[in-house]
Amino acid sequence: MDDKPLGKKPSDMSLGEFLRVYGGIYEHSPWIAEGAYASRAVIATVSALHAAMKAAVANAPRDKKLALIKAHPDLACAPAEVSKLTQSSVSEQKGAGLNQCTPEEYAEFQQLNADYKKKFGFPFIIAVKGLNRLDILKEFRRRMNNAPDDEFNTALAQIDRIAYFRLMALP
User: Among 40, 72, 133, 143, which one carries the catalytic annotation?
Assistant: First the structure.
């Protein structure tokens, strides 16, 4: 993955400013940015910040990791649920064409969302950047066969990938 320097050095930021800029990178989980703030003196690039944030997740207890996974929305969620999505999630899902599902695709997403949550206890997570809705459906179907621990780890890896893309998109 490419790297780029951060606009303002984290070492020059207060905790409040750091959280305002980076607190939303991980879906509804500002504790991750707060954990990364301790490393601010050595963070000058997106990759370094991403590594510090990933470490905050990796070092968290399992229940906190599960809460992070559960903070994510369903893919191709019902129209009534769209208002609960962060602006980043809306943009990412729209970029993958999830707002343009055929009725059949939408029904399959709804069924897969329900089946997946029943099996694993959390929503299906995938970094949708660069994918279209057919790619996502294919991966959704494939991952339904994963073991629970494998899928837990896959979800966390996908969340870290989403965070990287979000960091790269910042000005």
Answer: 72
- Type of residue numbered 52: A
Print the SS3 string covering 127-168: CCCCCCHHHHHHHHHHHCCCCHHHHHHHHHHHHHHHHHHHHH
Give the start-to-end residue ranges of the domains of the chain.
10-66, 69-169
Q: What is the model's pTM?
A: 0.92
Residue 142, pLDDT above cutoff 60: yes
Of 98, 110, 104, nearest in space to 136 by CA: 98
**How do residues 32-80 score in pLDDT, each as one tens digit?**
999 999 999 899 999 999 999 999 999 999 999 999 999 998 887 666 5
Q: Is 72 noted as a catalytic residue in this protein? A: yes
Residue type at position 90: V
- For domain 69-169, the CATH architecture is Orthogonal Bundle (1.10)
